[in-house]
Amino acid sequence: MGLKLYHYSVSGPSRAAYMTIKAIGIEVEVVIVDLMKQEQLKEHFLQINPQHCVPTIDDDGFVLWESKAIACYLAEKHGRDDLYPKGLKHRALVNQRLYFDSATFLPHIRAIMHPILFQNVKEIKKPLKDNLNVQLGFLNRFLSDSKWVAGNELTIADISLASSMATVMALDWDLSDFPNIDRWFKQCENIPGFEENLKGAKLYGDAVKRNLQL
Predict the structure, then answer these.
(1) What is the rounded CA–CA span in Å between residue 122 and residue 81?
(2) Residues identified as active-site
(3) Rounded-to-5 percentages of helix, strand, coil across the chain
(4) Distance between CA atoms of 13 and 104, rounded to whole angstroms?
(5) pTM reported for the whole predicted model
(6) Which of 180, 175, 181, 172 is nearest to 204 (CA)?
(7) Would you call 64 helix, strand, or coil by DSSP?
(8) How would you classify the pairing of strands 3-7 and 28-32?
(9) How many Cβ atoms from other residues are within 10 Å of residue 94's Cβ?
(10) CA distance 76 to 71
(11) Residue pLDDT, tens place only, 143-190
């Protein structure tokens, strides 16, 4: 059977899973689940994942969702200690960056995007913009003493945060106060699958910008 990825490129976490698979070098069958058409609610997909979210993988019958869990699992399975280090403290730092993305950074991005897309909001509210800039400040600080977000080598934490950051970039965000992010994001262009990441993020950002102009 091999590996199957249920994927929607507009989703930042789904793009992170896709890039992780490409970075590891795994052959994969990509199955598009169009969230805008509510294909995630079809009975076939609900049987696979009752939480009906992407990304979801089926690895020879083992089904897993949540992009960070997928990244950790695949890196472990394929022995990619470079992407997910085994050293206790280094792995803890990678995990912290992953949790920062899922619990802090990504929610602040969605707080801006979702009201515009789904609640007819026509502007980015200043408090939301300020809050996201605070999170960008943290990310910029993470990068002040290292080449990548969790040390001097690429890890799954960079891949995860690069998918979220691509969404921010698709909004033409001002990074003049965050030079370390600007430098790091340029490095991320070498991550396998990064071009697809940018394309999916652009679709997301363009939809938001269209609604802002209506």
Answers:
(1) 45
(2) 11
(3) 60, 10, 30
(4) 14
(5) 0.96
(6) 172
(7) strand
(8) parallel
(9) 26
(10) 8
(11) 999 999 999 999 999 999 999 999 999 999 999 999 999 999 999 999
